[in-house]
Structures are given as structure tokens and as C-alpha cells.
Amino acid sequence: MALFDYLCQLYARFLPLRQRLIKLIVKNTIFRFTFFTINSIFARNHLLLFFDFEAKSLENITVNVSSPRISVPVIALSLYAIASGYLMSMIPLMLPHYGLESSLASWLASAFYAGLLLGALVVEPFVNRVGHRIAFVWCLVALMLTIIALPAMHIAEVWLVARFIAGAAVAGVFVVVESWLMHGDEKGRAKRLGIYMAALYGGTALGQLGIGYLGVSGGVPFIAIITLLLIASTVLIYGDSDQPSTQHSSSLSLKQVFKLNHAALLGCAVSGLTLGAIYGLMPIELELRGINHTDLGSLMALVVLGGMAVQPMVPWLSKFMGRTLLMAMFCLLGSAAIAMTLLQSGIMMLAASLFVLGMATFALYPIAINLGCDKLDENYIVSATQVMLFSYSIGSVSGPLIADWFMQRSQGLMGYLLVALLTTCLYMLMASMKTKRQWVAGE
């Protein structure tokens, strides 16, 4: 309770509310969250024990998911993305302020994505047990605790563990939201994924601007990030929205996993290889080029805005060409953008190239996951998104470490991204030419 009172006093200093009112709001939120969690875990078992017939009847009742209401998870995701975008770009820059080596940045990024990898493996039973809404809130709570640990303990090992746990929590967020939005009619999946990506990348882009406005030192950045995550949790607890039924979710067998589209799995992995390096090391790459923190935040925002801008184009382009070929096209586009940064060094050219690079790299994941879930039974959606996130996580863990090797040499981060995208482009072109079916829309 001492910690609870301290947090209320801290927020009372920054918010124009009375301390008693803050306590009332927080206690009410905690009560509702605890009640919904316990109810989601035990309610179904209780019904099966005492009202077996009624429970079976209830299980047969299905909600119309042809046009699910997705405003609550999208709003919560947007708030999370703003906080996460600010935090991800802030961590590499704030290390010297806490007496930590800048070389720790790549290891922190890899620790985060290693947690993402582990979370992708274990989160499915948790989501099926408590439901999408409560699982989302618990993941945000775990993430907040890891963020509080960073300014509290200036020890490299503690930061590595905190980022690892944060990665596992973020894996839960991604699996929950992606499987939430992938349920429903297949025709609307591309549109819902576009909304998901726009919310994620738009929020991340806004978060980058916090570097210039709030800075990277002191307690204000952490207070801002925690506040955003608390608001996101409140939206999930109080918001009214449909959520998928998890009672009939099934897991993919190992044989079924290997039968998933290989281009989709590789697309997710390459998305992790590139985005993991961009999030973890691009701020350092730009700083080495002599970019000040205000312009650095704007340039990072341009990368994410490029990713946001391309999302409406992906469903439209999918109507005219196969998804495998579409991934090849975006990889080629990203390679061209990187080549421009290597040939010319002006800041305007750098800004334009980073915007196009963002379009290319951020387009891969939604195309790949849509391809992987194509014609898949809805019972396997949660499991399939878990597999796709697992592939993404493998790339995300490896990306910063491999990119760090390039940064120790003359090629830099851009050289690493060029190699990754060009290689993927060649593979996707060969995969799309295997059969004529893969050239047509939706294949």
C-alpha cells in the first residue's frame, strides 16, 4: 500500500486532480480488472460443474463476427504504440545518462526480441484461458513493471532481464490483437490488418516525437510512457467491444506448421531482421552521422510514417498481384531507398529515403501474416498468428546482433539492410515463379 500511495502522490503532482479522486479511480479500475480476470478463469468451469446442460447450450451460441467491433483493441494498441515507440528509440540514447555503455544497445534489443520469441511460444494457452481482453491488460501490466525497473536500477544485467520480460509481454500484445482482428470474414481481414498496422505505426511515429519534446533523461519520459499504458489498460477494462471466442481454439501440429506457406514464414522472419535492427540501432546510426536529437526523432518518425502510409496500399495492391510477388516488390523498393542513402548524404535525401525504407520494411509483415492465414480455419487463427510471430521474433533476435557486426565496419546499418532486402527479393521472385498461380491476386 505504501507503493500505491506513493504512485498516487506522484500522479497528483502532474495531473490536475485531487489525490483522493485518483485513488478512487485506480482502486475501481483494479477491482474491475481483478473481477474480470477471476471470472474469465473460473466462470466456465463453474458452469460446467453445476449447469452442464446450460453451459453446453451457451457454448453453441456464437457471436456474429462478420463485422466485429474493433475500436477498443485498436485504441488500446494506438496508446501502447505511442508509448512503445518513444521507449524503443529512447533506450539506446539514454544509456550514457545512466552510466551504461552505448554498446549495450544491441544486446538490449536482442534481449527484448528474445523475450518476444519466448512469449510467442507460450502466450497461446494464456490467451485461450483468460480471453483476449484480460490477456491484453495483463501484458500491459507486465510491460509497465519492466519500464519502472529501468530508472530504478542502473545495472546492465537488470536492464537486460527487464527488456527480456518486456519482449514476452509485447508478444502477448501482438498475438492478442492480431488474432482478435483476424477473426471474422476473410474478405475483411486485409482491411482490419491495415487498420491494425496504421494504428501501430501511426502511434509509433507519434512516439518518436517524444524524443524532441520530452527528451531522454530524467523521470518525465517514464511518467509519460506509464501514463499512456495505464490509459490503454483502462480503455480495455471499461470499453465495450466484441472479442473472439477462445473456447474452441486449436493448436497447429508440427506437421501443419511445416505446411504453412514458406514465403509467409520467411516474410515474417525478414520483417523481424529488418525492423529489429531499425528500432534497436537506427538511432545510433543517425547519431553517428551527426544528426541532433530533435532531427533524429523526426527522421525516426518518418520511417514509421512511411510504414503507416503504405498500409492502405497493401490491400489494394493485393487485388492485382500475388502476395509473394508483392513482398519481392517492396524488398526491391527498400533496396533502392538504401542505395540512395549510400550515394547521397544530404539530409533531405536521407529523409526521403528513410520514408521509402519504412514503406518497404513495414509492409512485409501484414502481407506475410495475411498469406500465412489464407484459407485457414478460424480455430487455428490464434495458433497461426503465434507461429508467424515466432518467425518474426527469430529475425528480431538475430537482426540487431548481425547488424552490429556490419556497424563495426564501413558498411554500417544501411549495408546490412541492403543485403537482407536484396536477398529476400531474389527468394520471393523465385518462389513466385514456381507456379503461375502465385502471380495472380491473393496467392
UniProtKB/TrEMBL annotation:
Q: How does it sit in the membrane?
A: Multi-pass membrane protein
Which controlled-vocabulary keywords does the entry list? Answer: Cell membrane, Membrane, Transmembrane, Transmembrane helix, Transport
Instruction: List the SUPFAM superfamilies.
Output: MFS general substrate transporter
Q: Which residue ranges does UniProt annotate as crossing the membrane?
A: 30-51, 72-95, 107-127, 134-154, 160-181, 193-214, 220-239, 260-284, 296-317, 324-343, 349-368, 380-401, 413-430
Which GO terms fall under molecular function for this chain's record? transmembrane transporter activity
Q: Entry's Pfam families?
A: MFS_1
| InterPro entries given in the database record | MFS (IPR011701), MFS_dom (IPR020846), MFS_trans_sf (IPR036259), MFS_YcaD-like (IPR047200)
Where in the numbering of this chain does the Major facilitator superfamily (MFS) profile domain appear?
69-436
- One Gene Ontology cellular component: plasma membrane
Quote the subcellular location field of this record: Cell membrane
Put simply, this protein is called MFS transporter
- Species of origin: Vibrio aestuarianus
Q: What is the lineage of its organism?
A: Bacteria, Pseudomonadati, Pseudomonadota, Gammaproteobacteria, Vibrionales
